[in-house]
Amino acid sequence: MGALSDRYGRRPLLLLGMAGLGLDFALMPFAPSLGWLLLLRVLGGLAASGGAVAAAYVADVTATAQRTRAMGALAAMFGLGLVFGPLLGGLLGLWHRQLPFLTAAALCLINLCYGWRALPESLPQRRQEPLELARLLPWQPLRRLWRQQLLRRPLAVFALAQLAQMLVQASWVISTGRRFGWGPAMTGVSLCFAGLLAGVMQGALLSRATARWGETGLLRLALVLAVLSQCLYAWAPQGWMMFAVMLLALPCAAGVPLLQSGLSRQVDAAAQGELMGALAALRSAAGVLAPLPAGALLALAEQSGRPWTHAFGLPFVAAGAALAVAWWLGWSYRPERAAGWAAGVA
Asked: I want to staple 182 with a disulfide (CB 3.0 to 4.6 A). Which of 12, 141, 186, 261 is the partner?
């Protein structure tokens, strides 16, 4: 999607993705079998890849000095959607189980109509060379980006941060349930609280924090607190402490927007879509891989037969280890530095 948007423009890809999501949501409640449902989820996954195009659009229309704040606002919108979307879906599902899907389809239709009328094209110069099939393969943009010395460290830090985040997400419900006896309600409250904190940091406090510490200082602080918070998550003896750790880890929500902004400065304007698509591919790969070690560590804790409930914190230890490597790699990285590398000519 990112490479296609570099060639054909952001606007058509964003509108196409919104139409695909709307179609997916409209058909899901009427799927006659699990196979059809999985097929529709494939359609939804392809359409949801438009998030990378949205990030490229933000990079197109914001000045370099404002890009971190804009990336933070975009991340905040995604985060708030993940907070309030399940809440609204649960309430609508009380009336009818198909209503959440149809409401989501209606929202996509409204968004599509609004984008059709109000969304201008953001890419002033599109790539003129023919779009090769190899450019659409997900590992090819990553290979081209990895060949550039300046991009290796931030890419590695981004990948490790995403892996750690997915490890936590894959383990949160079981770990907190076994350690603190949390049920669905308390789990929902904790995830809502975490999402709200991330939204506040990314949407309201990010510009103030960067003015206070600078982008490099804030990124270093985020990485240090990320390692510390995972250790505290792993060893917290009482459930209320998890909320206290979330407050301590508030600056950590700035890490991904800072990395996205820094990387976007180091890539030519005509390659922003390919860059954001590559970052989305790394995020998706982390989401695929993380449940495997997380599940193995939780199974090990379950089968140990010991009363040592902190064994269910092992996935957080693994996340902390990944973040410690990210901290070591990212300490010397300066997101303010721009290189203007063009992926299309590498």
From this structure: 186
> What global pTM score does this model have?
0.78
The pLDDT score that the predictor gives to residue 150 is 78
In this structure, are residues 239 and 180 in contact, taking their beta carbons and an 8 Å threshold?
yes
Give the separation between CA 64 and CA 267, rounded to whole angstroms: 12
Distance from the Cα of residue 140 to its chain's centroid: 21
- Tokens representing 85 are 């979307």
CB 126 within 8 A of CB 9: yes
Which residues lie below 8 Å from residue 13, measured CB to CB, with a gap of 6+? 1, 4, 5, 50, 53
Dihedral sign (CA 119, 54, 250, 192): positive
Q: What is the DSSP string of 1-33?
A: -HHHHHHH-HHHHHHHHHHHHHHHHHHGGG-SS
pLDDT in tens, 168-184: 999 999 999 989 999 87
Residue 63 backbone zone (phi > 0: left; psi -120 to 50: alpha; other: beta): beta
Residues 6+ apart with CB under 8 A from 99: 92, 93
Q: Which residues of the chain have pLDDT under 70?
A: 125-138, 270, 305-309, 336-346
Angle at 331 between CA 329 and CA 333, to 5 degrees: 85
pLDDT digits (tens, 9 = 90+) for 90-118: 788 888 889 999 999 999 999 999 999 99
Cα–Cα distance for residue pair 310/306, rounded to 1 Å: 10
Return the percentage of the chain with pLDDT > 70, whole number.
90
